[in-house]
Design goal:
With about 120 residues, this protein is an alpha/beta fold. Helices cover about 45% and strands about 20% of the residues. It has five helices and seven strands. The strands form two sheets. The protein has a five-stranded parallel beta sheet with strand order 2-1-3-6-7, with helices on both faces. Strands 4-5 form a two-stranded antiparallel sheet.
Length: about 120
């Protein structure tokens, strides 16, 4: 079972995405405090980080850059999401493996989650 760290500070959206992913066979840890992302990744192994760009008090791209600089977790696939215009370019430049624009269709989320996890497995083999 693939394990996802979901970094989302919006309470309702976080629960909805978490529940949908779990119903589709993923193990999900929901993290509402974005500055604990690196700590969580260092303490547990995840197949994917699914992270919003705009988080309370932080920009998800800053966390993305820090993940890429941290040796033991630098290859962890990161799927970033945002509703901001131009966010995709910014997120990819920060090191995100993939990006999904909000609002998104649930089936599109499942497809891109699976694709991003698979990219990570290919890179880490």
């Amino acid at each position: 079972m693939d394990k996802i760290l979901l970094v989302e500070d919006d309470h309702n959206l976080g629960i909805m995405i978490c529940d949908l992913l779990e119903l589709n066979g993923y193990e999900v840890s929901l993290l509402r405090i974005p500055d604990k992302t690196i700590k969580n990744l260092l303490e547990d192994e995840f197949d994917l980080v699914l992270m919003d760009k705009l988080l309370s008090g932080m920009d998800g791209t800053d966390i993305c850059v820090e993940i890429r600089k941290t040796d033991t977790i630098s290859n962890t696939p990161i799927l970033m999401m945002s509703a901001l215009n131009g966010a995709k370019k910014n997120c990819i430049e920060a090191g995100a493996t993939n990006f999904i624009a909000k609002p998104f269709e649930i089936k599109d989320l499942f497809t891109i989650v699976k694709d991003t996890i698979n990219k990570g497995k290919v890179l880490n083999d």
